[in-house]
Amino acid sequence: MPAVPQFRAGAWSPVASDLGYVSLWPAGRRLPAGWCELGPPTDRAAALQAAVSASNHAGGAAAGPPRRSLGIDTVIARFARQARRSPDKPAVIDADAVYTYGQLEARARGVQTALTDMGIVSGDTVGVCMDRSADLVAVLLGILSSGAAYVPLDGSYPEGRLRFMSADARLAAIVTGPRYTQRTSAAGVPVLGIADIASSAGTGGRLNPGEPDSLAYVIYTSGSTGAPKGVEATHRNLAAFLDAMAMLLPASAAARVLFSTQLSFDIAGLEVFFPLTMGGACLVAPHTWLLDRRSLTDLINSAAPSLVQATPVGWRLLLDGGARFTGGQVALCGGDALPPSLAARLAEIPAAAFNMYGPTEASVWATAWPIESADVAIGTALAHARVHVLDEDLVPVPDGVEGQAHIGGPAVAHGYRARPQLTVDRFVPDPWAMTVGERLYATGDLVRQVNGRLHWLRRGDTQVKVNGNRIELGEIESVATGLSGVRAAVAVVAHTHERAALQLFVEGTDDGETVRRRLRARLRELLPPAMVPQRIVVMDALPLTPNGKVHRAALEAWPGAR
């Protein structure tokens, strides 16, 4: 089935809100409260340019999130309260160390002091390139307490990508572990080793709780233009998400939460901050558990964490490896479409299992559905989010009709870092907002609501999820076509036995083996490992549909991929 248009082709108006946001709105429709027109209606491209110009004139992303009334505690304020209440209680546990709340607070203060001594101030961004560990948790708390936002840098990324992210995020410093000192030094910003910070543990005064509307983190996701894009989330976004999860889950879920996710995957925020703000413990999984799957299974079976979350691929590995669960545990599955066969297996474990859905732009998870059978749904909105199923005119569709999911409420992130045009395009006025002038995030996900529950159908663009990794196929294609000898490139995802594999088809001007070898080297140089296609096929010409478009369906079923 062809993808439905994300937005209508008619006239649009550039608009601005009382909170300082700019966006677009369908011409002729009544504007939501708190919004006003910036200029006359025109075609979408011209209206987009007018809105971006207004955003740049007002300061754009540099102006930062709007300031609202306080009304919410930050993660740091909540953690500090737990540390005062139970300083001797275990807070974070890994294979090498156990830090109590008092010890973790002291180490976080040491990080805060070291960063402040470097000149880090509120509003800065600080990169983090470390393996999972108890010290990584202290670093995150210390960065937030310094007033800065943390930016995860995956040590497995190519140096070129790390340099781009460092420049794009305007990092003021990078905190790194010993394995990544050399790689991060090439980024051109000051590097602070975790060993240097350790000597500062316990120094300084109290942790600084920070401001609810300051940035908490910037997480980079794949971008369709050939470069990753950074999603900016505030302390308010993060705190509202944690509140929503506390309302969804039993209180016991925070007792001992497994931290097994890469920090560059936004769901790691739940694994770190949920237990530490609720008086529980963060149980750190080995950094190499994907390479040694038995290690994580053994940890789950021996430590019985109260909450475990993973992608569908991760859950299949855990269940196949013999992971055991009890009725007092919680299992969260998300980050990719849940196959019915896996849903049936999760429904059989004694733990309370949920299918989760949410883009990074909506502060991690936005919906949840209890898994009780092979019947799969993404469920209903969490307390911090509202999900509307809208047509291309931003009008609600009837129950049972396909539409694009738009997410509103405190879940909605600030926007994309240094991407005003993309922010204007994807964050639109919210007619149903509890606070006037707020926005919806247009997810690009096509869904259907039936009897009050949401069902995910497919993407409306070329963004895909492969083994839990969010990937813009356009980014792979852009890198490929930048190589001499490649006329055109199309990336697709092939599904076999419930597994997804990236495939790249290119029109080459040289012999196939030469193009394939040079192209694979370029992809490995510029893209994360998860975005390097498993198969590359060099063709004389890409197959076309009768109307002259690339025949993606034919490529997805191509028998000669190797």
What does this protein structure show overall?
The protein is of the alpha/beta class and 562 residues long. A hairpin with a 2-residue loop joins strand 25 and strand 26. It is 29% helix and 27% strand. The protein has three domains: 12-58 and 385-459, Luciferase, domain 3 (Roll); 75-370, 3-Layer(aba) Sandwich (Rossmann fold); 463-556, GMP Synthetase, Chain A, domain 3. It starts with 11 loop residues before the first strand and ends in a 6-residue tail after the last helix. The relative contact order is 0.11. Helix 8 (235-248) crosses helix 9 (268-278).
Could you give a quick summary of the protein structure above?
By secondary structure, this protein is of the alpha/beta class.
**Gyration radius from CA atoms, angstroms:** 23 Å
Highest CATH level, the class of the largest domain: Alpha Beta
**Low-confidence runs:** 1-5
Number of strands: 29
Tell me the helix content.
25-40%
CATH topology of the largest domain: Rossmann fold
The gross shape turns out to be: globular
The tally of helices reads: 16
Question: How many structural domains are formed by the residues?
Answer: 3
Mean pLDDT: 87
CATH evolutionary superfamily of the largest domain: ANL, N-terminal domain
Please give the structural blueprint.
Layout: E1 12-17, E2 22-26, E3 35-37, H1 44-57, H2 75-85, E4 90-93, E5 98-100, H3 101-117, E6 125-129, H4 134-145, E7 149-152, H5 159-168, E8 171-176, H6 181-185, E9 191-193, H7 194-198, E10 215-221, E11 229-234, H8 235-248, E12 256-259, H9 268-278, E13 281-284, H10 293-303, E14 307-310, H11 312-320, E15 330-333, H12 340-348, E16 352-357, E17 367-370, E18 380-381, E19 386-390, E20 403-408, E21 415-416, H13 420-426, E22 427-429, E23 439-450, E24 453-459, E25 463-466, E26 469-472, H14 473-481, E27 486-496, E28 499-508, H15 512-526, E29 535-539, H16 552-556
Parallel strand pairs: 4-13, 6-7, 6-8, 8-9, 12-13, 14-15, 15-16, 28-29
Antiparallel strand pairs: 1-2, 1-3, 4-5, 10-11, 11-21, 16-17, 17-18, 19-20, 20-23, 22-23, 23-24, 25-26, 27-28
Helix pairs in contact: 1-13, 2-3, 2-9, 3-4, 8-9
